[in-house]
Task: inverse folding
């Protein structure tokens, strides 16, 4: 009996040891998602990035993820679970995970953390973001060319700087083509709610807009636009399947390039904290194919994209006025990043009052 | 054919005790089959789900954090439901408690004293109780349906919180994000023991469960609650007022939900946000019935339900599967527990009858 026990114990120890050794071979890189990884928008874009990372570095790392993690105390537990399960590098992919990530990062100084779209860093906590507004500027120009009525509808999520910045970039782009262009904004107060987003889209179309864009994550607005026969822009992922005749282009988040770059640094032991804010030129976002538009509009969009990528064109360049008519940027002056990251005012041309 | 549930004349004591275990067994079998169909090792999955979260200290703390609001709310609800008052709006009372308790750390943030925390808890209870007082008043004096009024008030509370954190209570240093300033250290509910982050909310939950259990079992009030719940007429003959009982049960459950709200905000979140509860007030209804409306049963039920959340995450991490099958599995567990409990009290009767025969008799 004793022998049997001993044999069992050694077997268990060997199995336990080999499992441990296996885990040590490959570094674990983990992801925390706020939505479902098949949401067709924000989270799916991050998951595509994760799969690209696996493809590129799959012989050295393995990845894990937790999806549909609610923001708040649940997030703290989810992140801590990953930190404890042996993850060396953890990407938390929603703004609302910021404080939870900060707390867990303080508890696990040996684990590296990267938080998307936040503004708090630590020696083992970096932030990363994407200059989505560059894409929105291009969308604004396309909208101004396509729209018959000179009014676009904008489905916004929450009045945070990120979203306000997007609205302003869209209007600025549109007004560079048509100085009288206006947009109407509906605040859906959600990132992910097909019902509310569809309602917002219907309300905007009923108010007479003939181009629709969204800063929410589902394809519902695209479907409504398709039903009502107007054009629309996709968000976060290419939404062409939801509107083959409808989508003009989409801002596609291509996080994979960033994940590969940072994970490689982590593997080389050269990872350092930073606040990264890459744009079109770095490949962290790209534009879905320009479709359902005349060739001259397509050519214009492609040229603007090239100019932004080369740095020749900065979307927020004066002369620009705030909504109340006061001057924001003088002719030729460009906005600094600090102002953009804390943006809490509209530029001229937005037919809405910013919720304060 | 018609299927009917028929009340059993007498309830088997043995099966009352066995029922949760039968339910667990059925869940294990069907859950195991599901994991097998997904191509995952069912033993590993069930281990991660039920055992792994219990093997580590930090995870036990997380269990307590998750269970605390569920237990606290469900204990209050059990008093309501036993006395036949159907408070469905605990979610709203939870939120209003959190808001009322947060007045001190958000509006009077400069006042830092050891008195802050106890006052916050009292304000939280008061906020929840007052908010539950609305449906109580409407039912006691205007005879409205408390199920509807309490449920509708949840939306009022949610939108009120949303407006506060975007408007007057927004953190001036928070880059325009919809959240209040973070609470000062004197306004944060301390951890119970040093080994993890479980805060005193869990302590409140256990104390509340014991007190309510004692009241239900050993006091006249408890007897009054049971009698009025089972028969208003009998209660009236005994000199009990069902109107007073509406007030008592609603205010008590509102206060406990409010306490859960402020304990959660102060202990776990440490600021107000547009959403502070992943539906605790509604999940607590399940917990109350899972615990058979017995406060001590509710403690167990709350822990079990919390375990399904933690276990669900553990399975996701260890087996690399999506959270969808996990939700199905949680659903399986609840389905079996509640149906096993139902079948103790009822039996299924198939009623076969000929359609042509009933047609002649007209509409019944």
Result:
């Amino acid at each position: 009996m004793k022998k049997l026990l001993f044999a069992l114990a050694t077997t268990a120890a060997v199995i336990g040891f080999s499992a441990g050794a296996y885990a040590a071979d490959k570094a674990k890189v983990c992801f925390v998602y706020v939505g479902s990884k098949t949401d067709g928008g924000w989270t799916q874009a991050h998951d595509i990035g994760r799969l690209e990372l696996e493809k590129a570095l799959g012989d050295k790392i393995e990845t894990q993820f937790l999806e549909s993690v609610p923001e708040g105390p649940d997030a703290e537990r989810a992140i801590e679970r990953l930190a404890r399960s042996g993850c060396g590098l953890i990407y938390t992919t929603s703004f609302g995970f910021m404080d939870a990530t900060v707390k867990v990062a303080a508890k696990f100084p040996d684990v590296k953390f990267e938080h998307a779209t936040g503004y708090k860093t630590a020696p083992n906590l970096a932030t990363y973001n994407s200059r989505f507004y560059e894409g929105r500027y291009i969308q604004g120009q396309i909208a101004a060319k396509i729209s018959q009525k000179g009014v676009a509808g904008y489905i916004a999520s929450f009045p945070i700087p990120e979203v306000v910045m997007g609205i302003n970039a869209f209007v600025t782009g549109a007004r560079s083509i048509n100085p009288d262009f206006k947009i109407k904004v509906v605040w859906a107060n959600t990132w992910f709610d097909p019902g509310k987003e569809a309602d917002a889209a219907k309300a905007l179309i009923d108010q007479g807009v003939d181009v629709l864009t969204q800063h929410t994550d589902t394809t519902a607005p695209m479907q409504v636009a398709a039903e009502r026969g107007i054009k629309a822009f996709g968000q976060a992922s290419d939404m062409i399947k939801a509107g083959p005749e409808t989508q003009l282009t989409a801002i596609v988040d291509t996080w994979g390039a960033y994940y590969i770059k940072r994970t490689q640094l982590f593997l080389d032991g050269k990872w350092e904290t930073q606040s990264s804010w890459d744009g079109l030129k770095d490949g962290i976002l790209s534009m879905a194919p320009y479709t359902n538009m005349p060739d001259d509009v397509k050519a214009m969009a492609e040229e603007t994209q090239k100019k932004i990528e080369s740095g020749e064109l900065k979307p927020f360049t004066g002369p620009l006025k705030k909504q109340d008519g006061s001057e924001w940027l003088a002719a030729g002056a460009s906005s600094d990043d600090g102002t953009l990251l804390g943006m809490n005012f509209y530029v001229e041309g937005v037919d809405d009052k910013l919720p304060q | 054919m018609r299927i009917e549930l028929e009340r059993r004349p007498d309830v088997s004591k043995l099966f009352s005790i066995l029922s949760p275990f039968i339910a667990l067994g059925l869940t294990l079998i069907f859950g195991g089959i599901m994991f097998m169909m997904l191509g995952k090792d069912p033993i590993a999955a069930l281990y991660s789900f039920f055992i792994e979260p219990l093997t580590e200290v930090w995870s036990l703390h997380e269990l307590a954090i998750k269970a605390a609001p569920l237990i606290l709310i469900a204990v209050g609800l059990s008093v309501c439901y036993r006395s036949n008052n159907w408070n469905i709006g605990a979610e709203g009372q939870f939120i209003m408690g959190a808001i009322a308790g947060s007045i001190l750390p958000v509006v009077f943030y400069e006042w830092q004293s050891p008195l802050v925390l106890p006052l916050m808890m009292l304000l939280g209870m008061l906020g929840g109780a007052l908010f539950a007082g609305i449906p109580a008043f409407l039912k006691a004096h205007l005879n409205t349906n408390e199920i509807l009024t309490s449920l509708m008030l949840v939306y009022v509370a949610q939108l009120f919180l949303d407006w506060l954190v975007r408007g007057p209570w927004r953190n001036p240093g928070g880059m325009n994000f919809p959240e209040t300033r973070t609470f000062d250290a004197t306004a944060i509910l301390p951890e119970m023991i040093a080994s993890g982050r479980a805060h005193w909310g869990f302590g409140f939950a256990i104390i509340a469960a014991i007190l309510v259990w004692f009241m239900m079992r050993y006091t006249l009030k408890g007897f009054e609650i049971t009698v009025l719940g089972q028969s208003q007429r009998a209660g009236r003959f005994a000199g009990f007022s069902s109107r007073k009982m509406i007030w008592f049960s609603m205010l008590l459950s509102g206060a406990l939900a409010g306490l859960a709200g402020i304990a959660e905000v102060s202990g776990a979140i440490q600021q107000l946000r547009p959403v502070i509860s992943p539906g605790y007030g509604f999940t607590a209804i399940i917990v109350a019935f899972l615990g058979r409306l017995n406060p001590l049963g509710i403690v167990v039920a709350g822990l079990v339900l919390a375990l399904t959340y933690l276990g669900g995450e553990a399975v996701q991490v260890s087996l690399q599967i999506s959270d969808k099958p996990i939700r199905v599995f949680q659903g399986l567990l609840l389905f079996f527990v509640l149906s096993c409990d139902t079948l103790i009290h009822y039996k299924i009767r198939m009623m076969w009858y000929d359609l042509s025969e009933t047609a002649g008799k007209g509409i019944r």
